[in-house]
Amino acid sequence: MYYTVSEISGDYAVLRSEESGLERSVALALLPEDIDTGDRLLFEDFSYSKV
What we know:
55% strand, 51 residues, globular
């Protein structure tokens, strides 16, 4: 499933699903180190990778 980083605040990022439009908060520790607002992420096999 693909997500877009819509906001980064403190230790969390808000990700918006490209498929459903729903948002979820995810700890930055679970995401790739070099993400920024607007980046596209792929959630696969219980981990996020930058696309």
